[in-house]
Amino acid sequence: MNASKESPLNEELMVQIHSILAKIGPKAVNSVSLGKNGVVELMFKIIGPFSKKNSSLMKVALDTLAALLKSKTNARRAVDRGYVQVLLTIYVDWHRHDNRHRNMLIRKGILQSLKSVTSIKLGRKAFIDANGMKILYNTSQECLAVRTLDPLVNTSSLIMRKCFPKNRLPLPTIKSSFHFQLPVIPVTGPVAQLYSLPPEVDDVVDESDDNDDIDLEAENETENEDDLDKNFKNDDIETDINKLKPQQEPGRTIEELKMYEHLFPELVDDFQDYDLISREPKAFVFEGKARGPIVVPTAGEEASGNSGNLRKGVVMKATVSPKGDEDNKKPACAVLAKEDIKDNDRTLQQQLGDQNRTISSGHGLNNDIVKALDRITLQNIPSQTAPGFTAGTKKDCSLPVTALTCANACSHVATCGNVLFEGRTVQLGKLCCTGVETEDDEDTESTASVEQALVEVPDGPTLHDSDLYIEIVKSTKSVPEYSEVAYPDYFGHIPPPFKEPILERPYGVQRTKIAQDIERLIHQSDIIDRVVYDLDNPNYTTPEEGDILKFNSKFESGNLRKVIQIRKNEYDLILNSDINSNHYHQWFYFEVSGMRPSIAYRFNIINCEKSNSQFNYGMQPLMYSVQEALNARPWWIRVGTDICYYKNHFSRSSIAAGGQKGKSYYTITFTVIFPHKDDVCYFAYHYPYTYSTLQMHLQKLESAHNPQQIYFRKDVLCETLSGNSCPLVTITAMPESNYYEHICQFRNRPYVFLSARVHPGETNASWVMKGTLEYLMSNNPTAQSLRESYIFKIVPMLNPDGVINGK
Question: CA–CA distance from 203 to each of 166, 171, 576, 651, 736 (Å)?
Answer without folding.
Answer: 11, 10, 18, 9, 67
